[in-house]
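Sharing a chain and its predicted structure for anyone who wants a worked example. Both blocks are below, sequence first, tokens second.
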Amino acid sequence: MNISQYGLTLMTEDDVSIKVNHFRGNPTPDNRTMIVLPATGARQERYFNFARFFAEHGWHVFTLDYRGMGESNVSALFDMRYSMVSWGRYDLDCCIRWAKDHLMAQRIVVTGHSIGGQIIPLAKHFQDIDAVLAVAAQKGYWKNWPAPHKWVVAAFFKVYMPLCLKIHGYVPLKWFGLDDLPRAVAQDYIRWTTCIDYLDRDDNSFVDRFEQFTAPILSLSFTDDLNYAPERTVDDLAFNYYKNASVWRSHVSPHYYALSAIGHSGFFDPKVMPISAWDDVRNWLDTILYGPVEKLTFKSLPAVYFRPGTVTNQSVA
């Protein structure tokens, strides 16, 4: 199938421009749309193969660089509008509104990788989201890591990052193969990792927004992702923060697929992850959006545990 890809520059509600790529093949009549949210410091190119796969199956797919990242980096390392809170509140919300207003999308799903799975409830129009694929999306509270990893996480967020902010005013991450973190992004990152709560810069909690989120979630983690998203951190976000959403949860070992490693980002690489796993996600989304949920099965993803939500989402009914 011919897949078209073209770049867009979208303007957020707070007048920041973000760079987006739109993938499309032969869209379904309801113009179903997927928005892919990257991990911290990752560029949208990492998700292009995943986006093309879903475009081949009738989806509009949007990848983006958050403000301050990738093509959306406009040398604003010290602009306090460039924060993780703003990634959800404005950048994601801008994509949701564009899909609704310009595509007349009747179904919107979000794929959130790592931090991408944490910022979803911050969007003003999060109730327009029909389902979420959360890949290695964790509550990054440092005490959730097993020893000795938790001491490394604590040192990074309590020593290295504050020191970088004091010396540079931002956090250099290019030596990790990632984009540097603007000051306000780094401050949010430190706050959310060193505190069990989710707080903004004024110490206001927005945990209640997670509790208001009721769209179904498929949450995946990987046994060899101990540095970034070990099982306990992913369970914490899925079950203790998204406490009113229906959650399908799978903790995947690379050995299950006869692989040496999957890690934090391998799920999005077709050279690593079997396409059968992506097919399982596609089937899950089709069943969640169009039913019947009672016939939902997983052919590739192992040991999927289901935790029903306290509120039935309309798209599941």
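Comments welcome. Residues 4-139+206-307 form a domain with the Rossmann fold fold (CATH 3.40.50.1820).
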